[in-house]
Amino acid sequence: MVGNSLGTKLVEGGHSVFLGSRSAASEAGQAWLRSVEGRGQIGTFAEAAAFGEVVTDATNGANTLTALRLAGAENLRGKILIQAANPLDVSKGFPPTMTVCDTDSLAEQTQREFPEARVVKALNTINCAVMVNPGLLAEDHDLIICGNEAAAKAEVTKWLGEWFGWKAERVIDLGDIAQARGTEMYLALWTRLWGALGTPHFNLRIVRAA
Amino acid sequence: MVGNSLGTKLVEGGHSVFLGSRSAASEAGQAWLRSVEGRGQIGTFAEAAAFGEVVTDATNGANTLTALRLAGAENLRGKILIQAANPLDVSKGFPPTMTVCDTDSLAEQTQREFPEARVVKALNTINCAVMVNPGLLAEDHDLIICGNEAAAKAEVTKWLGEWFGWKAERVIDLGDIAQARGTEMYLALWTRLWGALGTPHFNLRIVRAA
Q: How many domains does chain A have?
């Protein structure tokens, strides 16, 4: 769902989009391709990663590392990898628990296993409809990112502005990739706010002292 | 620090406040008592819990259960226990890790061990200066609470309005006490936002769809 949303919005913006999955022409992939009237490509994780100038990880967090292994370290080398995935274990019901947290994170696992990928954790704190359309919400709100490389975070901030309309001044950089423990663990609150508010269409606006 | 802030604000509001600690007349307690010009009482956890119509848990989360055992189940019976404590392990540096998370929470441990206390998790998502003065921040912002008993949550919402100025319409009730996993795990983000923003004086304003 996240990959489809991101892909559709990027296609609409005139970008060349290649959606990867386990199988080259999955049913979900074909449905997406029809929905964008053929203005995109679908294939394996490895084909998608090889194609991309930038790679976005919108996988199910419990299977992210498996998917990235299928994508292949050689296809991720030197590329910015925007990780929107969260390590949620949805197998035991809602709200989900986490497959990793507190002393490690999916983002750190990813950066460790793919040291030549330039991992930027971003977009994982919001629903996909808000990701691609921050103006959906009634007021400006904040995107919290992190990653080891300042240049990669600056690029991602610029892209998220160009692609989706995120304002650079509303991007909060927490620091290195280990800070993803914070944004991933926030999902434990995010899923419950979704339940309490009755909608996933919300986000945080950090209010500071007057 | 949290207990002192809450105690001082309540004393200033004309309430009778009894601060408990391990020792009956701790140095910190005596310093607080001087700071409020004797308009309060200090003593043991048990004395404080016995005194209170309502009990606020502002302990160091790693030692909360120990402190509550010293307070005594008989002194908590039937009383609303506002738990501002968080299960943070600060022994290994900053940002802290958690002593419990994901599949359990300090609030649930507390409610399980003290089934006759009416535990309401509240105020744990903000710095103590913001707890007692929500107007410190530039815009309205949200207080996220939970607990098993609707009547107790309604009382706490009313009190937080009367005591500190929290607006009832900005209180978000996540549901039963297990939802405290969400507000406690948010501390992993809160501590990092503190680092990134350079101040603990901030809070979340949840922005919804237009």
A: 1
